[in-house]
Amino acid sequence: MGTPDLLIRTSGEKRMSNFLLWQSADTELWFTDEMWPDFNEELLYTAIIDYQSRKKIR
Prior knowledge:
Elements: E1 6-9, E2 28-31, H1 41-53
Parallel strand pairs: 1-2
Pfam family, one: Prenyltransf
Cofactor: Mg(2+)
Keywords: Transferase
């Protein structure tokens, strides 16, 4: 299993709570105040567009 490229955190939380902490060491994080049941396709596209616009230094 590879590492995720993008991790989306819903509900306005700005912490990882040890969720995939080791696997997400090189992962881009995206936060939204929307609760998970309200997360929709439009927000997913917004997250992807934001991710694609980031400059990655490797």
